[in-house]
């Protein structure tokens, strides 16, 4: 079953060279098999990942899974399969992505209400494998959270 975490969105352009993270809360155990985002413009190479939460921050959180690099063939829904499905327990996690060129993605204009004051975070990071653990990430003032899609059984 595919589940979009938000239904209303706008677009946001991002330049290369940044690790971007957005919080997401899971309320039941699940197995994640794919990660994705909705691309509005640009087709750079993209890496997607998931970090464990570390006290309402990704800072110091363990890298749980990553996939890519892969390049979107066109605008629209873009997914990358995890090499090994990831079983997770209920709780807070951080979706992450890196890209090697400019990209515009759909981001939500509504938020998951249970996230309270948590917002997107990011840090300057060259394109490549995700660092493990997650580096210190200042809060960013994006207009919303990044859009993320997961496929769970």
Distance between the termini: 6 Å
Kindly state the mean pLDDT as a whole number? 79
Compute the number of helices: 0
Q: Report the sheet with the most strands, covering strand number, pairing sense and barrel closure.
A: 6 strands, antiparallel
DSSP strand content: over 45%
**Morphology call:** globular
Helix content: under 10%
Number of domains: 1
The third-level CATH topology is Jelly Rolls
Computed Rg:
14 Å
Unreliable residue runs: 1-8
For the record, the CATH class is Mainly Beta
- Compute the number of strand runs: 11
* SSE series: EEEEEEEEEEE
- Write the CATH architecture name: Sandwich
The secondary structure category is mainly beta
Could you explain the architecture of this structure?
The termini are close together. The model is unreliable at 1-8 (pLDDT under 50). The chain contains no helices and eleven strands. The protein has strands at residues 2-4, 9-14, 18-26, 30-41, 46-52, 63-70, 76-88, 91-99, 103-108, 121-124, 149-151. The protein has a single domain (2-151), classed as Jelly Rolls (Sandwich). Helix content is 0%, strand content 52%. The chain is globular. It has 153 residues and is mainly β. Strands 1, 2, 4, 7, 9 and 11 form a six-stranded antiparallel beta sheet that branches.
Write a brief structural summary.
The protein has 153 residues and is mostly beta strands. The chain contains no helices and 11 strands.
Secondary structure layout:
Blueprint: E1 2-4, E2 9-14, E3 18-26, E4 30-41, E5 46-52, E6 63-70, E7 76-88, E8 91-99, E9 103-108, E10 121-124, E11 149-151
Antiparallel strand pairs: 1-11, 2-9, 3-8, 3-10, 4-7, 4-9, 4-11, 5-6, 5-8
């Amino acid at each position: 079953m595919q589940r979009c975490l938000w239904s209303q969105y706008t677009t946001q352009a991002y330049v290369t060279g940044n690790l971007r993270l957005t919080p997401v809360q899971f309320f039941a155990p699940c197995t994640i098999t794919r990660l994705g985002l909705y691309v509005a413009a640009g087709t750079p190479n993209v890496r997607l990942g998931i970090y464990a939460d570390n006290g309402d921050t990704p800072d110091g959180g363990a890298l749980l899974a990553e996939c890519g690099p892969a390049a979107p063939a066109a605008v629209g829904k873009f997914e990358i399969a995890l090499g090994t499905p990831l079983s997770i327990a209920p709780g807070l996690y951080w979706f992450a992505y890196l890209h090697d060129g400019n990209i515009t993605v759909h981001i939500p204009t509504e938020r998951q209400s249970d996230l309270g004051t948590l917002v997107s975070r990011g840090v300057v990071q060259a394109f490549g494998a995700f660092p493990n653990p997650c580096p210190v990430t200042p809060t960013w003032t994006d207009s919303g959270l990044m859009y993320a899609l997961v496929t769970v059984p």
